[in-house]
Design a protein that fits this description.
The chain is an alpha+beta fold. The chain has helices spanning 3-26, 45-61, 70-74, 95-99, 169-184, 196-205, 218-230, 256-264, and strands spanning 33-35, 42-44, 66-69, 86-93, 106-113, 116-124, 129-134, 138-141, 144-145, 158-160, 189-191, 210-214, 234-236, 249-253.
Length: 274
């Protein structure tokens, strides 16, 4: 591994673990909850505090780097994605899970250089599970290398997806139609665990075979994207075309054949770009 990337990874892991301690400390406590774009798009004081902690720590060490964070973007800060080294951060991926003390809550930290994702860290503090990957360096869970399941048969697959926070009837109708199409196609099952970063890591780990979602953002996907790829998985747009970090759509799978099969059963949503 390049020494510079190794340093970024070490620093990123350290700050993710520090953030995880903050999340664990607040996990079973009463939370102060606010709403963002809808009544089910939630944010807590912990989200904001943890993002400030992560960005301030990284900025102190890497003052020339850029940052894109979920909560600072939601608060109106203009964040432009450029070729400059850019940390893309979701401080509490799975805020609704966090609010309900459901354990699939993750710190998600991705790093892009020249608009290529070169590093991903997803830490699930309640479970103490740390997923890491660097471009060309493999994917790991708690230091042990992981690999996708390599499943190719849709009818032998366990899939992940989410309804998401939108309650627009047209969007919900399409998402329910997609669930129905995949169930009727004979998949073993569909699961929703409430975190894009965790879902992508579970595909990378090999205990789920594919995951797709509409309506998520760059900070939900950046870290998980490189983890899936380095675990041998496939990363695409839901249409089956090339993945676009700003498209708000993602499809990851254990094989290209399975990805194409999932995509063929989806009615696709066009969404405003990040």
């Amino acid at each position: 591994m390049d020494a510079e990337i190794a340093d970024y990874l070490k620093t990123g892991v350290e700050v993710a673990r520090t953030a995880g301690k903050e999340i664990n400390g607040a996990f079973l406590e009463e939370k102060r909850i606010e709403c963002k774009s809808s009544a089910v798009d939630l944010v807590t004081e912990t989200d904001k505090h943890v993002e400030d902690l992560i960005i301030s720590t990284l900025k102190k060490k890497y003052p020339t780097h850029s940052f894109i964070g979920e909560e600072s973007t939601a608060a109106g800060k203009h964040c432009e994605w450029t070729d400059n080294p850019t940390w893309i951060i979701d401080p509490v991926d799975g805020t609704t899970n966090f609010v309900h003390s459901f354990p699939y809550v993750a710190v998600s930290i991705g790093l892009t250089i020249n608009r290529q994702i070169v590093l991903g860290i997803v830490y699930i503090p309640v479970l103490d599970d740390l997923y890491t990957a660097t471009k060309g360096g493999g994917a790991f869970l708690n230091g042990k290398k992981i690999q996708v399941s390599c499943q190719e048969d849709l009818k032998q697959s366990l899939l992940l997806s989410e309804v998401g926070s939108s309650r627009m009837e047209s969007e919900v109708t399409i998402k329910m139609k997609n669930y129905q199409a995949l169930v009727l196609a004979g998949v073993h099952g569909l699961r929703s665990i409430g975190s894009a970063a965790v879902s992508m890591c579970l595909v990378a780990k090999g205990c789920n075979d594919a995951y797709y979602e509409y309506g998520i953002h760059s900070w939900d996907m950046a870290a998980g994207a490189v983890i899936v790829l380095e675990a041998g998985g496939v990363l695409l747009d839901t249409t089956g075309g090339p993945f676009d970090l700003l498209s708000r759509r993602v499809l990851v799978a254990s094989s290209r054949k399975l990805a194409d099969s999932v995509s063929s059963h989806l009615t696709h949503l066009e969404l405003p770009r990040d």
